[in-house]
Amino acid sequence: MSVEPQTRRLTATDIRSRKGGTPIVSLTSYHAHTAAIMDPHVDFILVGDSLGMVMHGLESTVPVTLDMMILQGLAVMRGSKRALVVVDLPFGSYEESPAAAFRSAARIMKETGCGAVKMEGGVHMAETVRFLTQRGIPVMGHIGLTPQSINTMGGFKVQGKSEASAAAVMADAKAIAEAGAFAIVVEGVIEPVARDITREVAVPTIGIGASPDCDGQVLVLEDMLGLSPRVPKFVKKFGDLGGMIGEAVTAYADEVKARTFPSADHVYKTKT
Ligand code: KIV
Hints:
The chain has 272 residues and is an alpha/beta fold. It folds into 2 domains: 12-239, Phosphoenolpyruvate-binding domains (TIM Barrel); 240-272, no CATH class. It has helices at residues 12-16, 32-38, 51-54, 66-79, 98-112, 126-133, 150-153, 163-178, 191-200, 221-224, 241-258, 265-268, and strands spanning 24-28, 44-47, 84-88, 116-120, 139-144, 183-187, 205-208, 216-219. Helix 4 packs parallel to helix 5 (98-112). It is globular, with a radius of gyration of 21 Å. The termini are far apart. The structure holds 3-methyl-2-oxobutanoic acid. Residues 28, 46, 48-50, 88, 142, 185, 187, 208, 218, 220 line the site of 3-methyl-2-oxobutanoic acid.
């Protein structure tokens, strides 16, 4: 009798141990099927709260709820078997206190089975990162351009341009790393600052609109596939799924209108 070899899922500890090694590959996914397709090729799958904008057409990630994250986190866990799955803590579910953050993170982990959560914020969230990691919850940090703070940041603004801003992002990275985060997403940070952060912190940095010298990169799947209506300038398009869907739907609509689509007879094999 042959026994199927069990695929071991990567863990937060595996990702942590990749500091300075082979670049860490990551993409977002919110669905079982896209998760299954990317699973053999990525180290971790991020169930990002960008799902609010990408799937639901929201203007920002602010309205995303814990229930939305759990539903999509479950789908991604169902579709994947090898990559670490990291689920975002949405706005309003963790900032109030370490205890509130623990309750939300524990719900995500229990109800999805994912291996880690991600939270935005630097120095001011360090106490919360420590509280969670000391209680068994692996935390990925997220600093620089933090989309949940769009209303106080005044838009999606690149960080680290001035000396003060560069120093603040560096302080955020160090605080989160020292508090126990196993990796840190560095978003929208100018290249030299992202490079310095990568050199100075002991945990892997995962860049997005930052620097190829980060320890890895994450992109929003729909952005790199050409499926999002608005794509950040730094994203390279690896496909044109939007164009392909448009062409396919046009061809389909033309066939339906002309009644030229194939009959199902050859499938049913009916005798008349
Ligand atoms: O929600 C998300 O997709 C993210 C990435 C942009 C890092 O947080």
